Predict the 3D structure of the following.
Amino acid sequence: MFNRKNALILGAGSTAVLLVQSASAALPAGVGTAMTAIETDALAMVDLAWPVVTAVAVSFILFKIFKRVVSKV
């Protein structure tokens, strides 16, 4: 069952794996520092947004409860 086509596919796959492994290079230190700074800023923005999201969610829930109470009166 091992024919020329299978050997060609296996050879191409092996070559691709070797090229991908050799193409990876170490990133400069500045890239790691920049990614850490972006992550810190994003987490700070999320921390600032949680009170707003919570207030909006609670207000929608209270509005629905208010509508139910008023519709029964």
